[in-house]
Design brief:
Layout (H helix, E strand, L loop, with lengths): L2 H24 L4 E2 H10 L6 H13 L3 E6 L6 E6 L1 H24 L8
Antiparallel strand pairs: 1-3, 2-3
Helix pairs in contact: 1-4
InterPro entries: Metal_resp_DNA-bind_regulator, Tscrpt_reg_PadR_N, WH-like_DNA-bd_sf, WH_DNA-bd_sf
Protein name: PadR family transcriptional regulator
Pfam family, one: PadR
């Protein structure tokens, strides 16, 4: 396995959880799947539709999102919104992310305070 392939695999693992946190955070305001894809992409999250839509369904099944159909427009769209439980999970995940970021920074002798 080449270094690029190894790095690619590790980056994919690292990003997987961040898409959950980002989606729960963005969907505090109601949004539909395609707009979420655009928002995440603009923020630098690389996620494909065939990854995002199953994730949204899983988060809804876990009670972290709710959804409803908007049929006011010519094309019906399913809007998602973070639930109170989803918001609490997103907050806890962001706090853990910050803690881990600090811990890794502290371990790095070039940037951290570890002696």
């Amino acid at each position: 396995m080449t270094m690029d392939a190894t790095l690619s695999g590790h980056l994919q693992e690292l990003r997987r959880g961040t898409v959950v946190v980002a989606s729960l955070t963005v969907l505090r305001e109601p949004g539909y799947g395609y707009s979420l894809l655009e928002t995440l992409s603009a923020a630098g999250f690389e996620v494909e539709a065939n990854t995002l839509y199953p994730l949204l369904r899983r988060l809804e099944a876990q009670g972290l999102l709710t959804s409803e159909w908007n049929t006011d427009e010519a094309r019906p769209r399913k809007f998602y919104r973070t639930t109170a439980q989803g918001d609490a999970i997103a907050t806890a995940l962001r706090e853990e992310w910050a803690r881990l970021d600090k811990a890794i920074t502290d371990l790095d002798p070039t940037t951290g305070s570890r002696k």
